[in-house]
Amino acid sequence: MTSAYDFVVKDSKGNDYPLAQHRGRVTMVMNVASQCGYTQNGYEVATALFDKYRDQGFSVLAFPCNQFGGQEPGPVDQVEHLVCTRFKGNFPIMAKVDVNGKDAPPFWDHIKHAQPGILGTTGIKWNFTVFLIDKAGRCVDRLSPGAKLSEVEPKVVALMQAPA
């Protein structure tokens, strides 16, 4: 598979969720955790961008992950409740995943290899690592946890303005 949009992941209910439905859109993907020091900022950035740009071709996908400090111990329905009530987020919450290791879904291996981290490492180091996927499904950027709105928004806008 050459495009992130060729993959099928699981949604919060365990159903297949074809990423092809985001083809032609810019998509922000992040591994999330509700008990992390980056939770507030991460969800606020995602919600602000999604609310502002969803009608202009922007999507957000949040994947709960408990691999870093055990900071997402609860079930996915608790994550959805937190995101919807505390952060007013209405973007899709996916099934809980491991983003590193043998149990990481192929989609995560694909985007990690497309945009390696510091010194070319592919492993994700912490919660709220952000990946940006362009309209054609190419993973074109990786941002560290704690990335501010002022850092992420110009990248999203540039991708939305770029030809497919």
How does the SSE layout of this entry go?
Blueprint: E1 8-10, E2 16-18, E3 26-32, H1 39-53, E4 58-64, H2 76-86, H3 106-114, E5 130-133, E6 139-143, H4 149-161
Parallel strand pairs: 3-4
Antiparallel strand pairs: 1-2, 3-5, 5-6
Helix pairs in contact: 1-4
Task: Characterize the structure shown.
- The chain has 164 residues and is of the alpha+beta class.
- It has one domain (4-159): Glutaredoxin (3-Layer(aba) Sandwich), CATH 3.40.30.10.
- 29% of the residues lie in helices and 18% in strands.
- A hairpin with a 5-residue loop joins strand 5 and strand 6 (139-143).
- The model has no long low-confidence stretch (mean pLDDT 92).
Q: What is the count of structural domains?
A: 1
Structural class label:
alpha+beta
Q: Give the second-level CATH assignment, the architecture.
A: 3-Layer(aba) Sandwich
Mean pLDDT: 92
Q: What overall form do the CA principal axes indicate? A: globular
Helix content: 25-40%
Q: Strand portion, in percent?
A: 15-25%
Span between termini: 18 Å
Number of strands: 6
> What is the CATH homology-level superfamily?
Glutaredoxin
Topology order in helix (H) and strand (E) letters:
EEEHEHHEEH
The name of the CATH topology is: Glutaredoxin
What would you say about this model in short?
The protein is of the alpha+beta class and 164 residues long. The protein has four helices and six strands.
Main traits of this protein?
4 helices, four-stranded mixed β-sheet, alpha+beta, single chain, globular, 18% strand
